[in-house]
Amino acid sequence: MFTASTLLAAITADGPDSREIFDPATGELIGRAPVNTDADVDRAIDTAVAAQASWAGLSNDERVAILHRAADAVEANAEALVEILSREQGKPLNGPNARFEVGACVTWLRVTADTPLPVETVIDDGDTYAEMHYRPLGTVGAITPWNWPMMIAIWQIAPSLRMGNTVVQKPSEYTPLSGLALVHVLNTELPAGVLTAVSGGGELGARIVASERIDKIMFTGSTRTGKRIVEASSGNLKRLTLELGGNDAGIVLDDVDPKAIAEGLFWGAFINTGQTCAALKRLYVPNAIYDEVVAALAEFAANVPMGVGLSEENLLGPLQNQMQFDVVDRLVESAKASGARVVMGGTPDRDATGFFYPTTLVADIDPAAALVVEEQFGPALPIVRYTDLDEAVRLANALDVGLGGSVWSADKNRAREVAARITAGTVWINSHGSIHPAVPFGGAKQSGYGQEFGTAGLKSVSQPQVIQG
């Protein structure tokens, strides 16, 4: 078993080919991440391609058993991984944060390993017989973000390996230690070469995407980068799964108890301090209960502690980097200048250590305000008043993204009718952002394409093959 210090010692680097990584809450130096080169990427791809045939040659049961052992290794080293994750990403230990994330890695590994994908009989009518098989694609490039750097990595790695592919993974340059630590633990059980990782800036991801020896790209990140990946992937028409930006809308109906939904609304919006692609980022509330919903949400939010991640009592942490702090600060300042009402928060200490932005609720805001129509990706929720449900649905659908959405109502049938009118990959009823490893997840419009999780996720990293006759 590793401690956080021994695991960091195994993955960090010294010298000019490394970069200092600091805690976003305290500014303390955590360690030095390696900075790999294009040549390193090419060697990683060589290694993965060379290992793929033998990995695919194992039986499904053999690969499943290895993935379970990898899950056991993550579970055994959970606290070491949790500490590195909390210090580097900033998220607290408890609540839906660091321990939750590492636990989700274990769950996703096990469920993905055990999800059945049998041969399908397509037709058997006496004249024609055809079967659908799912074969490995080859080598998958997995490019992961900084907000959930371990969990999203597993979302990409686990199904790829299960189906007989090998993986070259590149963590975000903002959270390289979390990604490298996870891969190091997994590789205590995986065969050599099956999973390799490279660390560095976006140019390394671009090299992975452009390589004609990479057969599939899985990417979670911005729509802007996703579009560049589409363009760069044309060399060998590699398959893509893109989970891109979102600006999820929630619509509250007029039959709810505001106090009963306040906790769900809060965590739908503020999970991971708002740094979640499928978080609730704009809330539409009917005029009849608007003030009550705002008050109930503010009352709950006031009791959720924010602070340094390694302190057990905290449930919200800092923003992960200066760039994201500046985005949230700009959008809230713009809302204030436009006359919107700041119910709580909105006044960060810009001279303090750490990228802390206070929990912020903004009411009576114009539906066209920048804080509403741009993805803030932080702890600031705009709450829009509406009088006509059709108008609320129109506003929810007005943007060019559609990752998730939610409807909040005491009548689930009524909520489902409204949900069916929202253009998004997932629409939740009376919750927002909850995911399950067996339930497919993916975006609509410019929030990307391709699905993850469950049998749909396994198929997305496979080559369908029909055998007829």
Automatic annotation (TrEMBL):
The keyword Oxidoreductase applies. The active site is at E243. The keyword Cytoplasm does not apply. InterPro entries: Ald_DH/histidinol_DH, Ald_DH_C, Ald_DH_CS_CYS, Ald_DH_CS_GLU, Ald_DH_N, Aldehyde_DH_dom, LUC3-like. It holds the Pfam family Aldedh. PANTHER family: ALDEHYDE DEHYDROGENASE-RELATED. This is Aldehyde dehydrogenase family protein.
